């Protein structure tokens, strides 16, 4: 399978390409970090941070190397940073310019996951949401029940905007999978 067209589209800010790359490489990066950390929460946080950094810096990707190798290298660095800080939550310092670039990534077009979420009645939806990990429950609750913007969520959680976007994307995907499995 040729991944380079998706990488090129992602470099232009194409949200569909970002989503494809996230879906395509999530399990590989997460699995790698799970083996290293032996902790699901840390592995998930590192994976989220990895994709956040990769999408912020995708213009610097060198196509002479495999994309998954590049992602794993970023993941290793994020893990090292996390160990240095001796915290389970990973924060990244980003400039205002990078923050603005990440803000422009957001696609307001409802995705398949959004359509599934809005189709369900509220009580069943709340039951499904309770099956998610707490940090995913929180971003879903802030976005869809408190109707906060990505920026407001980032400020509320004291996390970079790009992390919030990745967490929300992952939470919606996992929630859609739960809903599909219970149909």
Helical stretch tally: 10
**CATH fold title of the largest domain:** Arc Repressor Mutant, subunit A
Q: Output the helix-strand order.
A: HHHHHHHHHH
The major sheet is characterized as: none
- Range of strand content: under 5%
**What would you say the CATH architecture of the largest domain is?**
Orthogonal Bundle
Strand-pairing-aware structural class: mainly alpha
What CATH first level of the largest domain would be assigned?
Answer: Mainly Alpha
Write the CATH homologous superfamily of the largest domain.
Answer: Winged helix-like DNA-binding domain superfamily/Winged helix DNA-binding domain
- How many E strands? 0
Indicate the low-confidence ranges by residue numbers: none
Domain RNA polymerase sigma factor 70 region 4 type: 124-175
Domain RNA polymerase sigma-70 region: 22-88
Organism: Flavobacterium sangjuense
Protein name: ECF RNA polymerase sigma factor SigW
Description:
- The protein is mainly alpha-helical and 183 residues long.
- The chain has 2 domains: 4-85, Rna Polymerase Sigma Factor, Chain: A (Orthogonal Bundle), CATH 1.10.1740; 96-181, Winged helix-like DNA-binding domain superfamily/Winged helix DNA-binding domain (Arc Repressor Mutant, subunit A, Orthogonal Bundle), CATH 1.10.10.10.
- 72% of the residues lie in helices and 0% in strands.
- The protein contains 10 helices and no strands.
- Helix 1 crosses helix 2 (15-37) and helix 3 packs across helix 4.
- The radius of gyration is 16 Å and the shape is globular.
- The protein starts with a helix and ends with a helix.
- The mean pLDDT is 81.
């Amino acid at each position: 399978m040729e991944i380079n067209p998706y990488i090129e589209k992602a470099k232009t800010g194409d949200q569909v390409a970002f989503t494809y790359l996230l879906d395509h490489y999530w399990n590989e990066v997460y699995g790698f970090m799970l083996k290293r950390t032996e902790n699901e929460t840390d592995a998930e946080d590192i994976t989220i941070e990895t994709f956040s950094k990769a999408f912020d810096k995708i213009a610097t990707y060198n196509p002479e190397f495999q994309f998954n190798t590049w992602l794993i290298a970023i993941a290793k660095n994020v893990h090292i940073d996390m160990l240095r800080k001796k915290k389970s939550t990973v924060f990244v310092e980003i400039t205002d310019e990078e923050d603005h670039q990440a803000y422009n990534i957001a696609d307001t077009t409802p995705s398949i996951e959004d359509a599934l979420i809005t189709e369900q009645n509220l009580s069943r939806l709340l039951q499904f949401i309770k099956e998610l990990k707490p940090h995913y429950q929180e971003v879903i609750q802030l976005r869809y029940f408190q109707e906060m913007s990505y920026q407001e969520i980032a400020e509320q959680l004291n996390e970079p905007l790009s992390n919030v976007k990745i967490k929300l994307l992952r939470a919606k995907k996992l929630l859609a999978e739960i809903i599909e499995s219970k149909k």
